[in-house]
Design a protein that fits this description.
Elements lengths: L9 E5 L3 H12 L3 E5 L13 E3 L6 H10 L2 E4 L6 H8 L3 E2 L3 H7 L2 H10 L7 E4 L2 H10 L4 E5 L9 E4 L10 H4 L5 E5 L5 E9 L5 E3 L3 E6 L2 E7 L5 H17 L4 E9 L5 E7 L9 H4 L4 H10 L10 E9 L6 H5 L4 E5 L10 E11 L2
Parallel strand pairs: 1-2, 1-4, 2-3, 4-5
Antiparallel strand pairs: 6-9, 7-8, 7-9, 10-11, 10-12, 10-14, 12-13, 13-16, 14-15, 16-18, 17-18
Helix pairs in contact: 1-10, 2-3, 3-4
Bound molecules: adenosine monophosphate (AMP).
Length: 361
């Protein structure tokens, strides 16, 4: 067990979006200072942090400065350059470890890692040209989801094949940008759930109950807790998350997304080495939110309880949804959270709310 960082210590956060904002707020409540590294001035996280270094994530001078002024560094998105995390780790603790970035940045590496530790995923094939795609579609009987291996999020960089005819693969590789792709078999899932889990510096493990997630146009729309799954399925999801945390020698919060099949068995869709949108409900329905849990983990404090006092539904406010704020603010038992973004563009996450439904049983 390492000694926790004392209050007043400084946490560096790479990335300045809403997840960084909520981490900075949780850190402040525990008496820690935060510095955000983000190229966009006045970003959502910097509005509530102690300071911001305005620079790109791979700026060597900025990284050196971040390492110098911080006692620990973490991140709020998974596309932080692995080399940046490695360089920082030479002089300051970086949690979660760079390996978690390496694994989660590439869908092929991610599935290979998961299968390697005995966790099931959709069947998959690497696709590096039209011939590969043709052969993979033949293997999967013309049905599958083609995704970019890297930099995909919120359903971006994806194409679904429902009954692909021979020849349909022609030109697709170039149309998808000529970048490495992966074809996944199409999973006919009953529902999608996610588990927010954490591992402390002492190796302690914790997980919140699974949330059931609904996506619209590839973007998370809502998370409902508890998910309607058998107790054995919920336990298996937590166990899988724990196996991932241990295999990566992880410290911090992780989000693991699952497909639940008709027989209650699980396949992992993807892992996010950070706090997760489908865990926002924890700030309203648990004494210790995922954000506080992550701060506790990276500063070396004991992990908090994941007990849920209320059943709830979290809904994202995307683009013009933000116009609902006044009406939502008038609802009892509803926690509203806005991210301080000036412009409501279509598809842009502007905020979220969590509606408490009833006391948890
Ligand atoms: P992703 O960006 O990989 O999280 O995918 C976004 C959404 O697309 C998922 O939450 C699923 O609803 C759907 N999806 C992704 N991969 C598959 C798959 N292999 N089979 C069926 N649906 C999928």
């Amino acid at each position: 067990m390492t000694t926790p960082l004392p209050a007043g210590s400084t946490i560096g956060i790479i990335g300045g979006g809403q997840l960084g904002r909520m981490l900075a707020m949780a850190a402040a409540r525990l008496g820690y200072r935060t510095i955000v590294l983000e190229p966009q001035p006045d970003c959502p996280a910097a509005q509530v942090a102690n300071d911001q270094i305005v620079a790109t994530y791979d700026d060597a001078i900025a990284l050196r400065e971040l390492a110098r002024v911080c006692d620990v560094v973490t991140y709020e998105f998974e596309n932080v350059p692995v080399t940046a995390a490695q360089v920082l780790a030479e002089t300051v603790s970086v949690f979660p470890p760079a390996r978690a970035l390496d694994v989660s940045q590439d869908r092929l590496a991610e599935k290979t890692f998961l299968n390697g530790i005995g966790i099931g995923t959709a069947d998959f094939r690497a696709v590096d040209d039209d011939e590969d795609l043709h052969a993979a579609l033949r293997d999967f009987h013309g049905v599958g989801v083609l995704k970019t291996r890297r930099m995909g999020y919120d359903g971006k960089g994806q194409r679904v094949f429902r009954n692909a005819m021979p020849g349909e693969a022609s030109g697709v590789f170039t149309a998808m940008g000529g970048v490495p792709l992966i074809l996944e078999s199409f999973v006919s899932f009953d529902r999608e759930i996610s588990v927010i889990a954490a591992r402390g510096t002492d190796g302690a493990l914790s997980a919140y109950d699974p949330a059931e997630n609904l996506h619209r146009s590839g973007i998370l729309h809502s998370s409902t807790v508890p998910a309607v799954v058998a107790a054995s399925t919920a336990a298996a999801a937590k166990d899988a998350a724990f196996s991932i945390l241990e295999a990566l020698d992880y410290v911090g919060v992780i989000g693991v997304e699952f497909f639940v099949l008709a027989d209650g068995s699980l396949l992992v869709n993807e892992i996010a080495p950070r706090v997760h949108n489908s865990g926002h409900w924890t700030e309203a329905a648990c004494a210790i939110s995922q954000f506080e849990q992550h701060v506790r983990a990276v500063v070396g404090l004991p992990l908090g309880s994941t007990m849920r006092h209320s059943d709830c539904v979290m809904e994202n406010l995307i683009g013009d949804d933000v116009q609902r704020v006044e009406q939502l603010a008038g609802e009892p038992n509803l926690m509203l959270h806005l991210y301080g973004k000036a412009e409501a563009r279509p598809g842009r996450k502007m905020g979220h709310f969590t509606r408490l439904i009833r006391m948890a049983r």
